[in-house]
Inverse folding.
């Protein structure tokens, strides 16, 4: 449907609450939203585009149709929206990517018990405690607890590995390990330290501090001064490491603090997470600049807690989110207890908010500082080549073969000046030998055919590049230019020229060269692109040649053609594995008959028997 048809359909919607679902040409869901009056909300998308943000205009351009679901209330619309977004992950909904997950503390039962941080449970007979807030939080806590109580962090297994080395490692000398490997920590002491470390992790510092102080006093009274000194050092370590965070917001047991910092093109959200007045975790997210503060705060909160189950009793936000009351009801149902959304204006709450803002600013500054340098390089490259805009999405191609045989093509992508391996592609060139220009033309023809089939995908073949770079010069450029003209496509096209030592020298046009030697940053980028595409293409060529060489060895066996040879290699992985396989294993391969399996087995075993003679 075009915009006019979509608007006509939207104007027929009822003025009731509901959820709308935007789809592209292929039927893929690209955006999900809620509305208290469907007609008013959905029709806005297909009215004047000048009132929309850049991101909304981009989304609307890709909308081919939409569905909708009527609900009884705004709250039901919010709940359904969250559920559908979690299920479908629409492209234009996703602001935050959940890459933290939950963590577990694992206690092994094999030999002397060990403490480790794990991302998930395994069926290995060990004890698991959790889940806890995040894997990063658990890993740091386990590391600190082991250092405090002198437990080893290496992979040695005790008591098996006791006294297997003469001298302890550096961790013993910096007093973060008591060196059981050298017999300096006996089993009884190890077990006591293990129990104390686990108690600290599970119960906090209060109970274990009281125990250690009692034990220290008892050791001193019994004139066990060495043990008393060791316990004193552990108490000091806990006070320094475990209690180093200042206590804040004591009145709120669990609290999350949300703050956003905006840059020229990007925004950063930082969430500080507190428990019992102590900061236990922080998360930061970078995304395209927000343009509607209240609505975007609502989206950020909704998405953050959609991908997490641990909801605190208090959520502090720098700006009052839209639908704040609905969000409170939703979060309260999710938590099972009352949740308050709060915008602090003074006192401790404001101090926490300022801390969150400072963290967000720092993260955004580091991100943009790094990316601004890369942006300047691609802008300079665009200016040198006379492009209308900086080439943010660059595709590069190379051909690889051995004396014309096993010809392949490699396509790599540099996005915003960095390798974007998700979009790399391989091509097995068909019916062409000893003609790099023709091979390059075939590769680009097939790549552009894929684009014409589905021009809506943002990654891979569904996106036209801002710039195409070929490993080659005039011949390759002219061959590919003809392909682009034939398909009615216009993409800036240049070659990358090497000197006699196979090092990048210049950028080629269809009839001339552009020197880049005096532009150090551009030269470095182009050289990196040329080296990467060459590596990618030649690696694929070597893999293909090796596979075909192995297959050709097997096709020497009577009854084994190319298809059966590939089936054997796919099943066993290597020629040596095929050679060492027994008859029953050969017969189990899909596509290998019993007579064929016997021929393979006989070929290799008779061959080695002849060698032994």
């Amino acid at each position: 449907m075009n915009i006019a048809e979509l608007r006509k359909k939207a104007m027929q919607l009822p003025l009731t609450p509901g959820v709308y679902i935007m789809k592209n040409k292929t039927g893929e869901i690209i955006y999900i939203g809620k509305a208290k009056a469907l007609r008013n909300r959905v029709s806005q998308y297909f009215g004047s585009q000048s009132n929309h943000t850049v991101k909304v205009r981009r989304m609307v351009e890709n909308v081919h149709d939409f569905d909708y679901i009527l609900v009884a209330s705004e709250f039901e619309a919010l709940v359904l929206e969250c559920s559908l977004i979690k299920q479908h992950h629409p492209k234009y909904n996703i602001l935050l990517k959940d890459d933290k997950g939950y963590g577990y503390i694992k206690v092994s039962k094999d030999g002397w018990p060990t403490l480790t941080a794990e991302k998930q449970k395994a069926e290995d007979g060990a004890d698991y405690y959790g889940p806890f807030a995040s894997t990063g939080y658990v890993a740091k806590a386990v590391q600190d607890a082991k250092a405090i109580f002198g437990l080893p962090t290496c992979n040695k297994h005790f008591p098996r590995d006791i006294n297997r080395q003469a001298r302890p490692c550096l961790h013993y000398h910096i007093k973060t390990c008591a060196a059981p490997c050298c017999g300096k920590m006996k089993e009884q002491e190890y077990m006591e330290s293990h129990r104390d470390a686990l108690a600290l992790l599970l119960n906090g510092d209060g109970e274990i501090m009281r125990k250690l102080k009692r034990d220290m006093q008892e050791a001193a009274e019994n004139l066990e001064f060495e043990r008393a000194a060791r316990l004193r050092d552990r108490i000091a370590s806990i006070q320094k490491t475990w209690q180093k965070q200042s206590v804040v917001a004591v009145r709120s047991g669990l609290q999350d603090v949300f703050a956003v910092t905006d840059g020229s093109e990007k925004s950063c959200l930082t969430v500080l997470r507190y428990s019992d007045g102590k900061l236990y975790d922080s998360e930061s997210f970078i995304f395209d600049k927000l343009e509607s503060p209240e609505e975007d705060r609502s989206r950020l909160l909704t998405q953050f807690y959609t991908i997490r189950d641990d909801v605190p009793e208090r959520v502090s936000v720098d700006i009052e989110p839209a639908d704040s009351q609905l969000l409170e009801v939703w979060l309260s149902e999710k938590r099972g207890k009352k949740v308050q959304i709060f915008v602090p204006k003074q006192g401790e709450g404001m101090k926490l908010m300022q801390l969150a803002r400072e963290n967000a600013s720092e993260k955004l500054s580091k991100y943009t500082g790094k990316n601004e340098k890369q942006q300047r390089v691609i802008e300079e490259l665009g200016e040198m080549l006379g492009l209308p805009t900086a080439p943010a999405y660059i595709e590069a191609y190379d051909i690889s073969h051995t004396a014309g045989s096993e010809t392949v093509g490699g396509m790599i992508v540099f996005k915003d000046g960095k390798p974007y391996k998700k979009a790399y592609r391989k091509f097995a060139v068909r019916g062409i030998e000893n003609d790099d220009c023709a091979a390059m033309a075939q590769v680009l023809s097939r790549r552009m055919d894929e684009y014409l089939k589905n021009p809506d995908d943002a990654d891979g073949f569904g996106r036209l590049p801002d710039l195409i770079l070929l490993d080659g010069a005039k011949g390759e450029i002219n061959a590919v230019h003809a392909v682009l003209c034939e398909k009615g496509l216009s993409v800036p096209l240049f070659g990358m020229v090497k000197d006699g030592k196979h090092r990048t020298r210049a950028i080629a046009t269809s009839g001339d060269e552009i020197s880049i030697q005096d532009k150090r940053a551009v030269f470095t980028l182009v050289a990196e692109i040329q080296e990467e595409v060459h590596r990618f293409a030649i690696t694929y060529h070597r893999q293909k040649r090796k596979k075909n060489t192995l297959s050709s060895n097997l096709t020497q066996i009577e009854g084994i053609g190319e298809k059966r040879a590939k089936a054997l290699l796919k099943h066993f992985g290597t020629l040596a594995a095929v050679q060492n396989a027994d008859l029953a294993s050969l017969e189990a391969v899909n596509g290998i008959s019993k007579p064929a399996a016997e021929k393979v087995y006989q070929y290799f075993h008779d061959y080695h028997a002849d060698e032994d003679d």
Observations:
- The two ends are 78 Å apart (CA to CA).
- Residues 254-260+271-279+287-365 form one domain.
